[in-house]
Amino acid sequence: MTDEILLEAEEKMDSAVAAVKRDLQSIRTGRASTALVEHLLVDVYGSKMQLIQLANLATPEAQLITITPFDKSTVNPIVKAIQSSEIGITPNSDGRIIRLPIPPLTEQRRKELAKQVSGKAEDGRISIRNTRRNANDALKKASKDGEISEDEEHRALDEVEKLTSQYIEKVEVLAKDKERELLEV
Q: What DSSP designation does 103 have?
């Protein structure tokens, strides 16, 4: 019983860390990265599709992302999706290839992005803490219902606390790395 609860808690905490990692990749640094745009939703063929499903993405230079659509008819919808997104980059299109020049970040913009990083990390920590609370509640209920002994409950509660600390530390490391990447000029 306790193993199931612990395993479920660990899986949820792991997915929270993965979500934070994914969110942080979408925050723009001074360098070009396809992660910045690959999950943008584009309105094509009567539905919304991720950009990575519609085009080849590349970074031929440190300050440039190129987008080569598989179908030329999707160029304009892709340009519109980029313009309406929050990345703040104006796309250049020649009708076949879309180029996204990545301008250097200003000091003010770096600080704003660092705040975004902190916010995303905090969301991850909250998710991990919620998982801890749910696991602890499940363990206490199992103990109250007589499914596990009090000793088992205490050992499992300690284990949940260790897991929580481990996963919060992983989020902290991700956030620090991203902030360091943002603030280096």
A: P
Nearest-angstrom CA–CA distance, 89 and 87:
6
Helix, strand, or coil (residue 68)? strand
C-alpha angle 171-174-176 in degrees, rounded to nearest 5: 105
Residue-wise pLDDT tens for the chain (185 aa)? 889 999 999 999 999 999 999 888 877 676 778 888 888 899 998 899 999 999 999 999 888 999 999 999 999 999 999 988 877 788 999 989 999 998 887 888 888 888 889 999 999 999 999 999 999 999 999 999 989 998 999 999 999 999 999 999 999 999 999 988 887 75
Task: Kindly report the pTM of this predicted structure.
Answer: 0.71
Q: What residue type is 40 in one-letter code?
A: L
Name the CATH superfamily, with its identifier, for domain 2-25+106-183. Answer: Ribosome-recycling factor (1.10.132.20)
- Sorted by where each begins, the domain ranges of the chain are 2-25+106-183, 34-101
> Is the CATH number 1.10.630.10 carried by domain 34-101?
no
